[in-house]
Amino acid sequence: MWKYFLIIIAIFAFISCDDTSGKNKVPEVPPITAQGNNSDVVNYGIGGIIYEYYLLKDNFVLENEAMIMQHALAMQKGIDTLDLKTVQGTNSDKNKTTQLVSEIGQALVTLMREKDMEAQRRPFQTISDKLYDLIKSVRFDKQIIYHEHCPMAFKETGANWLSNTPDIKNPYIPKKMIECGEVLDTLDFTRSE
Predict the structure, then answer these.
(1) What angle, rounded to 10 degrees, do the helices at 117-138 and 65-81 form?
(2) Which of these, 55, 189, 178, lies nearest to 124 by C-alpha position?
(3) Separation CA 8–CA 123 (nearest Å)
(4) Is 2 exposed, middle or buried (0-12, 13-18, 19+ CB in 10 A)?
């Protein structure tokens, strides 16, 4: 079943990244591991959302407006179709997860309504913060995720984002300070506890 999921992601990535010049090359996302605490349905859904998030973040780094909108829309579709019935945890945990998914969806709608890339970065910050909370809440254990921070973003109020590598590629001020930032946290639920 994972094989089909990875094939679909590969096809989507190939189609959505139709850039033959290599100018807008997006780094590869590390593979998702095979075994976990949540159901396959939850893992596929959240894995797909994280995948689209990384592409969204990378296109903020590249400042590619068309691809930002494309990946925000794809991420929104993932949020809209996410089946949370089999999320592990208490009723309180499940309610928190449902709330976070709703807040991510609302921020994506706001991002897609904005016409200016700088204005889109505010809801992107919300998406980043809520997705971080969601990953922690469901203990997504299919890959290691880095929570990164730039203290200079938004006139030195700071902002966070998620990455699939510990390397800093700042999506908030990429032209001036692409390497400004630090890793705040490493989410690694891939190890058995």
Answers:
(1) 30
(2) 55
(3) 28
(4) middle
Residue-range domains of the chain with CATH = 2-9+36-187 (1.20.120)
Quickly state the pLDDT bin for 186 (edges 50, 70, 90). Answer: very high
Give the type of residue at 139.
R
* Exposure string for 141-153, b = 16+ CB within 10 A, e = fewer: bbbbbbbbbbebb
**Three-state secondary-structure class, residue 52:** helix
Is 50 exceeded by the pLDDT of residue 98? yes
The residue to which tokens 């990164």 are assigned: 148
Instruction: Name the DSSP class of 29.
Output: P
Residue for token digits 């910050």?
A: 125
Task: Give Cβ neighbours of residue 131 (< 8 Å, ≥ 6 apart).
Answer: 49, 50, 53, 100, 104, 162
Exposed e or buried b per residue across 45-80, where buried means at least 16 C-beta atoms within 10 angstroms of its C-beta: bbbbbbbbbbbbbbbbbbebeebbbbbbebbbebbe
- pTM across the whole model: 0.81
Question: What type of residue sits at position 128?
Answer: S
pLDDT for res 192: 59
Which sign does the torsion angle of CA 193, 148, 138, 90 carry?
positive
Of 68, 29, 18, nearest to 171 (Cα)? Answer: 68
| Residue 27 pLDDT | 46
Distance CA 23, CA 117 (A): 19
